[in-house]
Structure formats: structure tokens, C-alpha cells
Design the sequence.
């Protein structure tokens, strides 16, 4: 689980990496006005649509941005959205009770008792979702009891426009000491740290403060029970360059407006299958 203590312990492993491979000044977000950060065009792109696209030819991005086609939400997208709702709302519920003077353990007890009702009201269904809500509540309350910290700022809004990104980027959370957090449902993917690099540079351009570390919180369901793990990430030069390359290729493709071809096979989870494959 992601109590403040476990987070700090996980990040400790990264300090040596940072010392041996420091971040180049030109890759800091506050240098957005010069290459390689300066974008070729300001198209208001989202980090997730850049990094998590499933189409090998980037036709998904073209469909959304040039042809104006909305994706058809898949089951995985719906579950991911529910996980985000529980993460955000549990943090808000705990913060509200702590602010009203409740102790962390009283807050935990109260929210545990009402969890099923609360989750049904939020999502319209229950099952394993209320267990996940309780796991989040316990994590926030443990951190508050252990070290006196309030829940993280979730759904942190940041203006990514200096980097050619959206004016209203939503970072899943910003944890202690400016650690950027990405919340994902399912198993690990290599693209998660690349998304963290995009958010980190956007935060650096916005706050003019270094963001060197991130964590991916991975939520999964094992035998109808939620499993929550955290993976620490040093947001190094390689990840930053990888994000910028993805961004620049996407901008070039969108500026030409030419329609990308259909690949021979399409991933099952693509939300545009109906449009492209009928
Ligand atoms: S359905 Fe196939 S061609 Fe269309 S966006 Fe998805 S992966 Fe690309």
C-alpha cells in the first residue's frame, strides 16, 4: 500500500540513480521556450492520448483529433475510470473528516462502516469496488496517523500548454515532496514511466521546481480482491527524451493531416474498432 512511509522507502532506492545520471538542464520543464522542449505547434494534446494510444499507425490519434471521432468506451476504460473515482473520492472523504477534527482512526472507522453505501452512490455498483475504497481509506488514514500527513492532492490540474499539451492536464496526484503519481488499473506497462515524464516536465514548466521522481500505483483485481502496488520511477533523461519524441511525432502527423493507414491487425482493446473495422 502507499503510506507515506512506504513511498519514502521506495524512493530511497532512486537517490543513487539520480546522483549517477543527473537530469540535463535542457530537459527541465522550465526550459519550455527552447529545443528540445519547445513544441513545433501548440495543439493542446493530452499526455495519455500521446503515450497510451493503442494503434500501431497512430490512427487513433488522427481519428480523434482530425476526423473528430469520439472513442467508444471499452470495459477496461470503464473500470479504470471507476478506480480513479474511488482514489479521488476516498482522499476527499478522509481530508474532509480530518479537517473537521476527527482523528485518523475515527475517520477510518466511520468511512469503513459507510463504504458500501458510499461506493454504490458513486458508481452504482459495489462488489470489489468497496474493498478498494476501504483500502484507499486505510492508506490515507495510516499516513495521517503515522506521520501527520494529509491525503495527497488528487486530480491536480496543471497548464501543459508551454509544452504543446493541454491547458487542463489532470495529474492523478502529487505526493509529498513533489512526487508525481500515475494511477493505473491492470498490469505493468513500459509506457507508464513515459507518461510520468510528460507530467513531470509539465509540472516543472508550471511550478518551476524540479520533479525528479514519480510513482505508478498499480491496482489490480485478484480473486475479487483489490491488489495495490507502487512502483517508484526516476524520471531520467531517457524517459524525458522518449516522451518528447512521442509528442513531436504526433504533432508532425497531425500537422500534415494525412490519414494514417489501418494496420494489418488491430488490438482488441482499441476503442475505435467499430469505426475502422465496422
Ligand atoms: S481500430 Fe485499428 S486502425 Fe483503427 S485506430 Fe484502432 S488499431 Fe488503429
Sequence:
Amino acid at each position: 500500500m502507499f503510506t507515506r512511509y512506504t513511498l519514502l522507502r521506495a524512493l530511497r532506492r532512486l537517490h543513487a540513480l539520480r546522483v549517477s545520471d543527473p537530469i540535463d538542464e535542457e530537459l527541465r520543464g522550465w526550459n519550455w521556450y527552447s529545443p528540445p522542449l519547445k513544441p513545433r505547434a501548440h495543439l493542446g494534446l493530452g499526455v495519455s492520448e500521446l503515450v497510451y494510444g493503442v494503434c500501431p499507425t497512430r490512427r487513433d490519434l488522427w481519428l480523434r483529433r482530425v476526423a473528430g471521432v469520439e472513442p467508444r468506451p471499452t470495459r477496461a476504460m470503464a473500470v479504470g475510470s471507476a478506480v480513479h473515482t474511488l482514489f479521488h473520492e476516498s482522499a476527499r472523504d478522509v481530508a474532509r473528516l480530518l479537517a473537521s477534527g476527527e482523528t485518523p482512526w475515527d475517520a477510518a472507522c466511520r468511512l469503513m462502516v459507510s463504504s458500501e453505501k458510499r461506493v454504490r452512490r458513486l458508481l452504482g455498483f459495489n462488489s470489489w469496488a468497496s474493498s478498494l475504497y476501504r483500502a484507499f481509506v486505510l492508506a490515507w488514514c495510516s499516513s495521517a496517523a503515522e506521520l501527520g500527513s494529509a491525503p495527497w492532492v488528487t486530480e491536480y490540474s496543471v497548464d501543459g500548454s508551454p509544452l504543446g499539451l493541454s491547458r487542463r492536464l489532470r495529474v492523478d496526484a502529487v505526493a509529498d515532496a513533489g512526487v508525481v503519481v500515475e494511477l493505473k488499473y491492470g498490469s505493468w506497462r513500459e509506457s507508464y514511466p513515459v507518461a510520468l515524464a510528460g507530467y513531470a516536465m509539465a509540472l516543472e514548466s508550471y511550478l518551476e521546481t524540479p520533479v525528479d521522481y514519480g510513482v505508478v500505483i498499480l491496482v489490480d483485481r485478484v480473486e475479487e480482491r483489490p491488489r495495490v502496488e507502487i512502483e517508484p520511477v526516476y524520471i531520467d533523461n531517457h524517459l524525458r527524451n522518449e516522451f518528447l519524441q512521442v509528442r513531436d511525432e504526433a504533432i508532425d502527423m497531425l500537422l500534415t493531416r494525412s490519414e494514417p493507414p489501418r494496420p494489418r491487425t488491430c488490438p482488441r482493446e482499441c476503442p475505435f474498432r467499430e469505426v475502422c473495422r465496422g
Remarks:
- The mean pLDDT is 93.
- The pocket of iron/sulfur cluster is lined by residues 54-55, 59-60, 63, 262-263, 266-267, 270, 272-273, 276-277 (CB under 6 Å).
- The domain at 4-147+158-258 is CATH 3.90.320 (Lambda Exonuclease; Chain A).
- The first strand starts at residue 153 and ends at 158.
